[in-house]
Amino acid sequence: MRTAPIRRRPAPRHRTASAALTRPAAAALVVAGLLGSAPAAAPASSDPVRVAAATATRSEASTSRTADAASEIAAARAAAAAEASRSSARPPIAAEQRRRDRDEQGRDNRDQRSRKQPSSPREIAMAMLPAYGWDSSQFVCLDQLWIGESNWDHTATNPTSGAYGIPQALPAGKMATAGPDWRTNPATQIEWGLKYIWLSYGTPCSANEFKLANGWY
Fold first, then answer.
1. Is 205 part of a structural domain of the chain?
2. I need a labelling partner for 79 at 20 to 30 A (CA). Which of 1, 9, 63, 202 fits?
3. Among 41, 50, 211, 62, which residue's Cα sits nearest to residue 143?
4. Do both 134 and 201 map to the same domain?
């Protein structure tokens, strides 16, 4: 008796639950959160409107920066041109300093000429008169007085009395109150003589009148 061979059936393939679902059922499960998240939304950069807006914004910012830089360059050039114009209008510092030095030297020379120190005894006496409140009319009397005394010679000596100098001080050492150089300096002798006249007679004209009347003063 012949036995018929036993045929085995292949084991059934197991499908996952999600694979076995139909597409509508899978979508429903996604919504319910039972399956994985839905595909992520497309990035904003893929939106043509947003891309265009972002591009326009960047372009405007770049244009603004370019305009600001151009404005700054123009302002710097204008400032440099103005400074160059002012510099060309001003003389060089060295030349200007030399001109100022010449002007100052000229003023100094004029001042020195105007303040020229008196050289002769008569000029010295004339320059001292205002200190006593005397005008040039008093110099006429003073000139007459001291011509008769010493002829304005600061070394004149009276051989009899020993009176000395332009005012013929007696004793001669009195003039030391006006300065230690009374023997050789006409200005010191004149200073002493004018003070003596002022204290004794008030004015040179009064002293000269006394001298004419008495032969001495």
1. yes
2. 63
3. 211
4. yes
- Closest alpha carbon to 118 in 105, 129, 133: 129
Which pLDDT value is given to residue 89? 55
- Where is 126: in which H helix or E strand? helix 121-128
Separation of alpha carbons 183 and 189, rounded Å: 8
Residue 198 to residue 192: CA distance in whole angstroms: 10
Which ranges of the chain have pLDDT less than 70? 1-64, 83-96, 98-99, 101-102, 105-118
Q: Is the pTM of this model over 0.70?
A: no
| Number of domains the chain contains | 2
Q: Which domain holds residue 150?
A: 121-214
d(CA 113, CA 147): 29
C-alpha triplet 32, 37, 38: angle, nearest 5° = 95
> Which residue, 90, 116, 142, sits at the end of a domain?
116
Asked if residue 133 and residue 85 are part of one domain, the reply reads no
Which pLDDT value is given to residue 68?
A: 72
User: Cα(197)–Cα(65) distance, rounded to whole angstroms?
Assistant: 94
CA angle at residue 129 from 175 to 177, to 5 degrees?
15
